[in-house]
Every structure is written in C-alpha cells, then in structure tokens.
Amino acid sequence: MAGPAQPGAEVVIGRERPTGPDGRALIAGSEAALREVYTPEECFTLDAAELEAPGIDFLVARDAASGAALGCVALVGCDGYGEIKRLFVRPEARGRGVGDALMQAAEARARDRGFALVRLETGPRLAAAVALYRRRGYRERGPFGDYAPHPASLFMEKAL
User: Fold this and answer.
1) pTM for this prediction
2) Which residues contact 114 (CB under 8 A, 6 or more apart)?
3) What CA–CA distance (Å, rounded) separates 15 from 106?
4) Does residue 43 sit in helix, strand or coil?
5) Are 122 and 129 a contacting pair, CB within 8 Å?
6) Can you tell me whether residue 81 is helix, strand or coil?
7) pLDDT digits (tens, 9 = 90+) for 116-160
8) DSSP label at 112?
9) Is the torsion defined by CA of 28, 34, 37, 42 positive or negative?
10) Could you report how far apart the first and last alpha carbons of the chain are, in Å?
11) What are the structural domains of the chain?
C-alpha cells in the first residue's frame, strides 16, 4: 500500500511484526508520548508481544525513499467490529499526513476482513489524534468491549 502523505512525500504501509526492531521502537515511542500526557493507570495499551496475537494486523508506515519507519497502527479483530489500536507517528514525521495514511490503511484492512464498523479508544488530551479521527468521520460513543467509563478515555466509532 502506498499513498501520498503530502505533495512530494510518499509513504509505503505494510504489515510487519510488532516484535521486530522497528515495531518495538515505534511502540516504545508511543508509550513515551502517552506518558508525557497520561499516568500509567490512564493508559490502556497493548505491548509488542500482545500485538503478535492472531487476529491483529500491525501496520507500519515507511518513508518510500529512505525506508525509515515513520509510524504504526494496529487493527484488532473483535466480535463484529475492528478496533484501531496504537496509532503513533514519530514526532519528526508529523504534519506529513502519515497518521491519515495509517488510518486509511487500517480502515481498508478492516473492510478486507469483513468489518463494517471500526471503533477506538483514545484520550481527550490527545487533541491532534482526536481531530484526525473526527476528520475521518469518527463519532463519539460510549465504552465498548472490556472498556469501562474513564475520564482519560474517549470512545469513538465509524461505519465503513
């Protein structure tokens, strides 16, 4: 999967192992970014080993020219819907459309897997992420799956 992140900037997105070196580095970057905004008790994430489980697609965006890993997202297959997890873009790659390209790829993968609905849990303090989700058509909803209401959580969904 390839797509323009911005005029002149190409990214290539593909499935990779979250336990590989780039996967682990992206997940560590995601954890560090979350810890700048939330306490450990307010973070509801999956680690690299958990993301290796069957039914989970871990996607990595790479710069088409250099091959550098720019960001990641995971799609978890749930009962009747896909859940978006672990969207992260390295700080130096932000503003290039990488997050949007990753979301587009995750949604396409969800459709390929037969899901008509995708859901996600994010945090209200992650303003850029919330704005991206809203631009992509996600709407707020109540908790789903094993989630409980929490002031650090914002639940969203989108029909595909």
Assistant:
1) 0.91
2) none
3) 10
4) coil
5) yes
6) coil
7) 999 999 999 899 999 999 999 999 999 999 999 998 899 999 999
8) H
9) negative
10) 19
11) 2-159 (3.40.630.30)
